[in-house]
Amino acid sequence: MLLRLRTALLAVFSALVTVLALAVGVPQAQAASALPCDVYATAGTPCVAAHSLARALYASYGGPFYQVRRASDSATSDVGPLATGGYADAAAQDSFCAGTTCVITKIYDQSTRHNDLTVEGAGGAGAADVGAPADALPVTAGGHQVYGLEISAGMGYRDNSTSGVAVGGAAEGMYMVTSGTHVNGSCCFDYGNAETNNKDTGNGHMDAINFGTECWFSPCYGQGPWVQADLENGLFQSDSGYSKNTANTGTGALPFVTALLKNNGQNHFALKYGNAQSGSLTTTYSGGEPTVNGGGYSPMHQEGAIVLGTGGDNSNGSIGSFFEGVMTSGIPTDAADDAVQSNIVSVGYGGATGTTGTLTPASEISLRATTACCSTDYVRHQNNAAAISPITAASSALDRNDATWIVRRGLAGGSCVSFESRNYPGDFLRHYNFALLRQPMDGTAQFRADATFCPTAGRSGTGTSFASYNYPTRYLRHYDLGVYIASDGGSNAWDSATSWADDVSWAVSAPWAP
Fold it and tell me: Cα–Cα–Cα angle for 89, 95, 101, nearest 5°?
C-alpha cells in the first residue's frame, strides 16, 4: 500500500514539474521522467498513437514495441524495453533471429488506444506490402544498441480501424523522427492520418507528414528532402502547394530529422523540422489550408486510419527511415513541440557506440591501407561508391565521417562482419559487379551476402584481410583508388597479382569520426 502511494505521489510530482516547465518555457528534457507523450498529455493534447522501435514514448510504458517473425519457422516474438520507460532490448531480437532472418510484422501503439500497425494490404495504387527486415537499421539511442524501421519500395504498415484518431475536420498534431540520408522522390513516405479503405477518396481525406525529395507543386527550393503535408492529391508546402519559403531548401543529409505537422482541420496547418541530434525546431509554413485542386481541404475530411511508409492509396514506391512517431488529439502548443524536440535530442540518436578499433560488433572503426604507396589512405564512401583517400586530423568532418564504419554482425553469417556507414544509418558496404558501394540494406538474401565479409589474417602477413562471403576467393582490395573484391590474378584489372597480398591487407584502426 505504501509503495503504491509513493508511486502515485511521484507521478503527481512529475506531472506538476512538467506543467511548470511548459508554463515557463523550460525545455521538457529537464524533467527526466517526461517522455514525448507525457509532455503532450500535460499540455492537453494526449497521444492517440505512439509508435517506436527504439524506445518508450511514455515514462510508464513497459509493454512491447514491435513484433518480429523469423523465416526459419514463422514463429513470432515481441521486442520490448530493457526497463519501463526505457530503450528496446535489441539483444532479444538478435537472439530470437540468430541463424535466420526476421521481418517486422507489427508495430505496437504505446498509447491506451492500441492503434497497432501491421503490414499493409493492397490499395488503389499498390499491391500488398511486405514487412521490413528487422535488422536493416541498427542504431544507437540513449547509449543502447536498438533498431529503427527501414522502408524500401513495396513495404508499408497500416491500421484502418483506429480509436481516437481525428476524423471529419478534427484537430490533430503529429511528428516522426526519420532520416535525411535514406530518401527518394517516389510517392509516398508518409506517417499519419489516411483513408480507411486504402484508396484515394478525395482532397482532404489524408493528413500525414511526408518526407522525401518529391516536389509535387513547383517551385520547391533546394534539393530537399522536405517535410511536407500529404493532404491527399498533393504534397503541400503551403496553402498554394508550392513553397513560399525560399529559405526552405530541405533538411539536407542530416542522419536524423524531426518532422512535424499540425492541422486544426478547418483553416490552418503548420510544418516544422529540426535536427534530431541537436538544436531547435524551424517552422517552414504556418497558414491557411490548401486552396488548390478545386478545394476540399477547408474543412478537412480525415478518415482516421494510420499509415506508415506509403501514401493513402498504398502508393509504395518510396523509401525512408522511421525511429519514432506520435499522433495527438488536438493541436499541441509550440511550447510542447519544443519540449518534445528537446527530449528527442536528449536521446542521442546515432551517438558513439562506446567501442572503437576492433572487429567486435558495434565497434566503430576506420580501415587503413597497408600498401607502401597508400599507408595514409582509408576506405571511405563518396557519391555512394567506396574509394580510398588520405584522411588526417585536418580533414573535413564530412571526410572523417565518410571514412568511419560501424562493425555489425554479418548480415549473412554471424561469424563474419558487415560495415554500416557512420553517417548514413542503415547503409552498408556491399559489392556489386565486384565494385564496393554504400547502399541501404533492403533485406534480400543477395544484399546480405554481398555486404558480408569474413575476417582472416592479413594475406601479406600484417593486418586483416576480408574475404567476400559469397565469393570466398575474393578479398576486399584497393586498386587505382577504388575498392573491389578481387582474386589473386584474373581477367579484371583489379585482379592483378601485383601487390595483391598487400592491397588486400588492412589495418583496423580507431575511427576518424567520434
Answer: 110
Q: Are 86 and 97 in contact (CB under 8 A)?
A: no
The length of the chain, given as a count of residues: 514
Question: Could you tell me which of 255, 271, 85 has the C-alpha nearest to residue 175?
Answer: 271
Type of residue at 23: A
Q: What integer is the mean pLDDT of 238-264?
A: 97
Cβ neighbours of 78 (radius 10 Å): 16
Are 34 and 19 in contact by the 8 Å Cβ rule? The answer is no
Cell matching residue 214: 518529391
Phi, psi of 343 (to 5 degrees): -65, -40
The residue annotated as part of the active site, out of 109, 120, 159, 232, is 232
Of the candidates 135, 190, 313, 427, the residue annotated as catalytic is 313
Is 427 an annotated catalytic residue? no
Please tell me the distance from the alpha carbon of residue 152 to that of residue 275, in angstroms, as a whole number: 23
In the numeric block, the cell 571526410 is attached to 399
Instruction: Quickly state the pLDDT bin for 24 (edges 50, 70, 90).
Output: very low
Q: What's the whole-model pTM score?
A: 0.92
Q: In what helix (H) or strand (E) does residue 2 lie, and over which residues does it extend?
A: helix 2-24
* Domains in the chain, CATH or no CATH each: 28-347 (2.60.120.200), 364-509 (2.80.10.50)
Residue 461 near residue 504, CB atoms below 8 Å: no
Could you give the CA distance from residue 190 to residue 309 in angstroms, rounded to a whole number? 5
- 4 vs 224, higher pLDDT: 224
- Cα four-point dihedral sign 192, 193, 198, 199: negative
SS3 419: strand
In Å, how far from its chain's centre is CA 505?
33
- Beta-carbon contacts of 84 under 8 Å, excluding residues fewer than 6 positions away, are 56, 59, 60, 61, 62
Please state, in angstroms and rounded to a whole number, the distance separating the CA atoms of residues 509 and 439.
23
pLDDT tens-place string over residues 141-174 = 999 999 999 999 999 999 999 999 999 999 999 9
Mean pLDDT (whole number) for 260-280: 98
Whether 232 is catalytic is: yes
One-letter amino acid at 143 equals G
Beta-carbon contacts of residue 420 (< 8 Å; ≥ 6 apart): 138, 405, 406, 407, 408, 426, 427, 428
